[in-house]
């Protein structure tokens, strides 16, 4: 049975719009076993009244799958970027402080704009060009079993942005594309069809804001909720970049 007298105390950093000043509001919700942050935010949404009884607007946040797959509900919880759907109240110290991941532009309250990350995925061509490939290459290529495990691991990336938020080189004053897009380039270089465009991806990583802007702080690998070995794959990309740089010099 739920503990009817037990409350969960939230301090939420809010912002009314992209150019508005942030402020905080405090809320309380009834505790129940297995309660997570998203479920608590839903309770606040039903009755948006602050801890001191003031009626306010509902807190805005983003969520979708509710099972740590889509990455949409990423926010800063007690100082750490993580998925709100997987953040259990029982495992969090109170008061629970919620804030948007300000590495990204804030749309409203806890909702952020990840467009910069998706634009970076375009820069490194993080996709497979299927159209016309079979006319160029007679036999359908097969996944190398030696790289299949690595490809599967990287493909678990949710593009949540936790690694981007943790990286000190990703900020409004930097053009660094960040760890997630770089490692996605490695994923598609491992793909049996995507490998045909490996040179284009590597050359993109050699441009301004590419792999040369990585400071090797290794914060990203610690922040990844899927335990992807980001720094290991960035190191492999760095080796590919050095090889391609030599080839580019020889082919001039």
From TrEMBL:
UniProt keywords, alphabetically: 2Fe-2S, 3Fe-4S, 4Fe-4S, Iron, Iron-sulfur, Metal-binding, Oxidoreductase, Tricarboxylic acid cycle
Domain of life per record: Bacteria
One of the record's GO molecular function terms: 4 iron, 4 sulfur cluster binding
UniProt xrefs under Pfam families: Fer2_3, Fer4_8
Record has Transferase as a keyword: no
Keyword Metal-binding: yes
Cofactors demanded by this protein: [3Fe-4S] cluster; [2Fe-2S] cluster; [4Fe-4S] cluster
Gene3D superfamilies (alphabetical): 3.10.20.30, Alpha-helical ferredoxin
Enzyme Commission number(s) from the entry: 1.3.5.1
Name this protein carries in UniProt: succinate dehydrogenase
Species classification: Bacteria, Bacillati, Bacillota, Negativicutes, Selenomonadales
């Amino acid at each position: 049975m739920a503990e009817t007298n037990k409350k969960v105390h939230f301090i939420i950093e809010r912002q009314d719009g992209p150019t508005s000043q942030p402020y905080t509001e405090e809320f309380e919700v009834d505790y129940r076993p297995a309660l997570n942050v998203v479920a608590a935010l839903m309770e606040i949404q039903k009755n948006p009244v602050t801890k001191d009884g003031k009626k306010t607007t509902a807190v805005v946040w983003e969520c979708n799958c509710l099972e740590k797959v889509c990455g949409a509900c990423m926010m800063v919880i007690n100082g750490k970027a993580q998925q709100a759907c997987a953040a259990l109240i029982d495992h969090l110290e109170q008061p629970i402080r919620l804030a948007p991941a300000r590495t990204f532009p804030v749309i409203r309250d806890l909702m952020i704009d990840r467009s910069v990350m998706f634009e970076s995925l375009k820069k490194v061509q993080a996709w497979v060009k299927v159209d016309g490939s079979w006319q160029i290459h007679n036999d359908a290529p097969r996944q190398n079993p030696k790289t299949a495990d690595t490809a599967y691991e990287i493909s678990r990336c949710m593009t949540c942005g936790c690694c981007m938020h943790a990286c000190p080189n990703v900020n409004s004053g930097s053009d660094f594309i960040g760890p997630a897009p770089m490692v996605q380039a490695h994923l598609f270089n491992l793909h049996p069809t995507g490998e045909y465009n490996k040179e284009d991806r590597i050359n993109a990583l050699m441009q301004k804001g590419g792999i040369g802007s990585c400071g090797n702080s290794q914060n990203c690998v610690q922040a990844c909720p899927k335990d992807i070995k980001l720094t290991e794959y960035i190191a492999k990309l760095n080796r590919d970049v050095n090889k391609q740089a030599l080839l580019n010099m020889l082919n001039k």
